[in-house]
Request: fold
Amino acid sequence: MSDFLASVERRAFKQAVFSVQEDESALDIVQDSMMKLAEKYSARPAAELPLLFQRILQNGIRDHFRRQKVRSTWTTALANLGLGGEDDDSDPLETLEVDVHANVPASPADRLEQSQVMASIEEAVKALPERQREAFMLRYWEELDVSETAKVMGCSEGSVKTHCSRATHALAKVLRAKGITL
Amino acid sequence: MNEKEFGEKLKPWLERSAHSLGQIQETRLKAARLRALDAYREPVRLFGLVPMSAGTAQTIQYSFVQRALLFLPLAALLAALAFQSLQDTDPGDLDAQLLTQELPPDAYLDPDFRTWLSKQQP
Reply:
């Protein structure tokens, strides 16, 4: 269990950050997901852990958006009544920290170029619609097959293929527009 | 470039991004992992059985013998209760038998009578 969690925690965090666009919430989601996996699914075979963890993680992300939607509804309603809510003007994008210094290239120029490419890719991934990003991440980062991805996302295999296709084309278009070749 | 090739080319960049987190995030993730591991309990197996509280209900496939073992405690309890009910005799019946005999109950308090009675039994 320890090895599994250590192997997925960074990817899980990045997935959560791409979705909720805020480090604190992303860390909370990852922590809750790891707790749930350890508490409730300790007896499951190791081979099932990746899929289970992804289901828990994606449910955690969806729950976050549900809570945010409810909070937003109440905040808007209270603001309309003049009872408050004006102080909640933070932009989640402003709090997102992108730290790209890994795999240090040989020269400062290369390092700069690499960090710019990575930042562009992250921006493009974050800009994807939620379901497209989820499908793309699960298929091509977590390397789940179409059937497993459909189970995690709670949709049909056809929907997974459609989301993946749209995500891929959208990413390719954005990167091409920025002159980035992979 | 097809979708799969594109995904494969993008993956190393995403991996690199995931492995270049800030110190704060690294520390928080490690703390979260350790907390989760505190909550983790290695499932205790007895005859290959795992307690149902360990998230086993949906996936563990037990053999016929293991399924039978799951019902062993219940079967043992029922057997013990049945045996006890056979052994138990109503004290009221004993009293009634004692009082309806021609022999007065006080006779059983006489040591000579008890000696005679023990000699009569095979």
Remarks:
- Chain A has a mean pLDDT of 81.
- The helical segments of chain A are 2-20, 23-40, 49-80, 92-95, 108-127, 130-141, 146-153, 157-177.
- Chain A touches chain B through 46 residues (CB under 8 Å).
- Residues 1-87 of chain A form one domain.
